[in-house]
Amino acid sequence: MKIKTLTNNLKHVAIIPDGNRRWARAQGFKQVWKGHEKGAKRLEEILKAAYDLKLACLTLWVGSFDNLTKRSPSEVKVLFKIYKEGFEKLLKEPKIHEEKVRVNILGRWQEILSSEVKEVAQKLIESTKNYSRFFLTFLLAYNGTDEMQECIRKIATLSRKQKNLKITPELIKENLWTKDLPPVDLIIRTGCENDPHLSAGFMMWDSAYSQLHFTKTLFPDFGAQEFKKIIESYFRRERRFGA
């Protein structure tokens, strides 16, 4: 499905919302999941800002596979609750249908989420699958390394059926989880200005020419105003694409 570009020169913004647990500790909360709850509210604010900016694609990494398999059961349980409530809100949100937002969830979420969360997630995907004005993608139980390994496995299977199969960039893209999304123009990672980094091979194929922005602000304090300022700063950058 072809994605319409609604903002000149900026099709796709991806956000890594980092710092929820650090924010909770800094606020004196013993329960780190308080940061996840606050962060979930910020996601709603950022989504509204994306509508205002007429962005074509917004991708949010709301949990790596490692996050959901290595952290304490109590924290993961709260995260599942937040996912369920968030997806239910989107299902009931009129603007999703007014703005023709296609919602997708990519990653290994079907392997580890509870049946209740998966049911709501599937309903959300199904109810928006025919929309194409705006693409909202959640990366959930997602590691970029897993995505690339799955892509290689698919191509290896194809090569056994097609002896003269030519490996091209187009073939790789067609076999990624993100096959329907354009390359990422801008990656924003919050809460790591002094430790700028990506994680777990984040969207490694789609981020080949991405611009990067790292904030000092932890995600629970990252609001629409700062998000819009970062978007404005993007247009002052010169993108060379290796030239």
| Low-pLDDT segments | 1-7
Count the strands?
A: 6
Q: Can you tell me the overall shape?
A: globular
The second-level CATH architecture is 3-Layer(aba) Sandwich
Strand content: 5-15%
Number of helices: 10
Strand order of the largest sheet: 3-4-2-1-5-6
Q: Calculate the mean pLDDT score and round it.
A: 93
CATH C-level: Alpha Beta
| Sequence of secondary-structure elements | EHHEHHHEHHEHHEEH
CA-based gyration radius:
18 Å
Distance between the termini: 30 Å
How much helical structure, as a percent, in the residues?
40-55%
Overall domain count: 1
- Main sheet properties: 6 strands, parallel
The CATH topology is Undecaprenyl pyrophosphate synthetase
Query: What class would the helix/strand composition place it in?
Result: alpha/beta
The CATH homology group name:
Decaprenyl diphosphate synthase-like
Textual characterization of the structure:
With 243 residues, this protein is α/β, with parallel strands linked by helices. The protein has one domain (12-143, 182-234): Decaprenyl diphosphate synthase-like (Undecaprenyl pyrophosphate synthetase, 3-Layer(aba) Sandwich), CATH 3.40.1180.10. The protein contains ten helices and six strands; from the N terminus they run βααβαααβααβααββα. It has helices at 20-26, 33-53, 65-70, 73-92, 94-98, 109-112, 115-128, 144-161, 169-174, 224-234, and strands at residues 12-16, 57-63, 101-106, 134-140, 186-189, 211-214. The chain has a six-stranded parallel β-sheet with strand order 3-4-2-1-5-6. Helix 1 (20-26) crosses helix 2 and helix 4 packs parallel to helix 7 (115-128). It starts with 11 loop residues before the first strand and ends in a 9-residue tail after the last helix. Residues 1-7 have low confidence and may be disordered.
